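Much of our argument rests on the idea that a fold can be written as discrete symbols. Part of our work consisted of pairing the sequence of a single chain with a tokenised description of its backbone. No coordinates are needed to read the tokens, only the vocabulary itself. The record that follows shows the chain in one-letter code together with its fold in token form.
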Amino acid sequence: MKNKNVFLLDDEHTNISWLVEWLNSKGCTTETAASADEALNKLEGKVSKFDCFLIDLNVPTSVHRGTGPIYTEYPGLAVAQKIRSWGVAGGKVVIYSVHLTPQLEVEIYEKLSCKYVVKGRPRELKSVLIKDLSL
């Protein structure tokens, strides 16, 4: 996992703090954003430098992006869609949230081909990141 770069989008400081600490202890570098706007500004033209993207669905935004009301309701989904549109493989994008409706399942798994982890389950999240980043 050494020398891997991970981008984290989450507006909850406690989630970002333990993730950054854990990833850094594994030799990863991290970049964080607390809103959809901040994430897109940091990522535009720079997605190739990241090995993995961890995206919370429910984050603040000032501009609604994406196609359809579900992207307005969950701004993190619009960020994931944009990352995918920039050519990032779906397997590198991990969406984590407490929300998972049938409509979200279609968007996450079928349309975006991303991974999903239930937020609040650190063991499961670590397992996915270890596998994805070969830690």
Observations:
- Residues 5-133 form a domain with the Rossmann fold fold (CATH 3.40.50.2300).
- The longest helix spans residues 13-25.
